[in-house]
Amino acid sequence: MTAPAQTITRALPRLDSRIVLWVVIALCVVTMSTPQAVWDTIQHLRVPDTDDAMRLVEVRDLLSGQGWYDNVQSRFLPPAGVLSHWSRLVDAPIAGMILALSPIAGPALAEGLTAALWPLLLFGLYGWVLYRGVRHSFGERAALLAVLVATQTFGVTTQFQPGRVDHHNVQMIALLGLAACMIRGGFRSGLIGGGSAALSLAIGLEGLPSVAVATLYLVGDWCLRGRPARPTLSGFGFGLGAAAPVLFAAQTAPDQWAVPRCDALSPPWLFLASAGLIFVLGATWAGDRLATIRARAALAGLCGAVMLAAFAAAFPACLGGPFPGMPALVRDHWLLTVNEMASVPKLIAGGQWEALAFHPVVALASLTAAWLAWRGLQRRAWTVAALFLWPGLILGVFQFRGLYIASGFVPLVAGAVLDRALTQAEESGTGARRWGFALLGGSMVSTLWMAPALLGEVLLPASRTAPDPGGAAACQSDTALRPLAALPPGTILAPIFLGPSILLRTPHSVVAAPYHRAISGLEAAIEGLGGTEADLDRVLTALRIRYLVACPARPADDLQAEPAFATRLARGAAESARLAPVALPGPLKVWRVTR
């Protein structure tokens, strides 16, 4: 190199790797969603899932003057309606954004802008919690790498895509915050963590297994270490025990305070939170008098046994899970057909190769966190990460929804592992160790797993026997439902998955939607659309149906050997004297009930 060139090189400012990472993160955030998806959300209120549509229906009702404590969806199974178990704590900020944007953009565009911006704002909050938590244990570069990996983790990005106004993203943030507080330790962190756990439970009980595991860890830590672990346990107990009743009262009508609900924060779960608070008060009062592991374990075991026995005696229905008393017909022909309830064997049998972008990274992160916790390096951080990953992974083998929360912890593990690979390179570590960590961290990036997923689609196209999601999406679109909205309002019998979109995009009422609190509507849709002509006639008469709607791309399950009458009707292979076809553009088939 010539002397002038050397001078120029020395004069150039050294580019900070942190700046490079921030720039790459910004680019990845901008490209997390396609411009078309953002535009469709803003202009046509495109939403990814039925739950997102139902959330917007609830928000609209709230903005239209429905009471804060009135969670009855009156157009769902009229005339009585259906009492929703969803939280107003998620409805409120979405409604606030729509109100703030309406004077500027108008009500319709304000809804679209909110549906697009709300998930992006939540991803910013998730990234901040992730960054703060990883930086505390592993340093700033690891934290930046974790945020970068988050933008490439499908289990994360699917929860923050445009239109994703459901509650799973808020729960992911709350439980990640709980984990960060557990790792940091201390009374203040425990208090914030307990409040985060209470927020997660108030929003929905999907996070209950994670909260239970976190509680067991903190109690076990106190049993083993005594005084050093007591502040975190005390803070967590006070935070959960105090915040849970407050949040419950804030979103539940007073006349419902004594009603036990197994699927939402209510007396059964408040009982456990209060019992935990009493245990924490006892442990705090006892202080150093419980000087041995045996004494502390005895107190914890006795209190736990009494608490669980009392719970089983007082609320036996909740021992069977959140769906007590669900009929076999509904379980087999609705619940077990929903994608979030699908097991790994079912996904593989159906040729749904996209599962490769979700399960392997959670499995690798779980194994890595457990391995590094066993090795003893940053043991508390790795142990807590493993505690939140493993339950999700195990549940995810049997039900896909188990990955919802666990996926949020994959970037934490991947960021720390990739940082360790870079540290090995800087310290001239052995090539095997350096490249081993690099390969391990890279294998936790979901986008890399798209290659085998796409390969499976190309090489084994005939293996896909699962229903085509494109057909269902077309039937739920604004384009498909706008003509239906022009018809005089009435009650519609339609496929279960169409219910929320009909409520969102039309003035009509529906019989069925994918929610377990409306069992009679689910039974009516399954029997009417999957049964014989007599079954359909019985449902049409009993529920005073005005319109029958079918999505030919997604027919109902046949309840007998021959195709269901409604399916043959949609194919043009059958007719009914009491159903008059309504000619509408688009993929939907519509009939008016004449008598």
Question: Which secondary structure elements does this structure contain, and how are they paired or packed?
Answer:
Blueprint: H1 3-11, H2 17-30, H3 35-44, H4 50-63, E1 72-73, E2 82-83, H5 88-105, H6 107-138, H7 140-150, H8 154-157, H9 168-184, H10 187-203, H11 208-225, H12 230-251, H13 267-286, H14 293-314, H15 328-333, H16 344-349, H17 359-375, H18 379-398, H19 403-406, H20 410-426, H21 431-442, H22 450-459, H23 469-476, H24 478-485, E3 491-493, H25 499-505, E4 509-510, H26 519-530, H27 533-542, E5 547-550, H28 565-570, E6 579-582, E7 589-593
Helix pairs in contact: 2-7, 3-6, 4-5, 4-25, 5-6, 6-7, 6-9, 6-20, 7-20, 9-10, 9-11, 9-18, 10-12, 11-12, 11-14, 11-18, 12-13, 13-14, 17-18, 20-21, 26-27
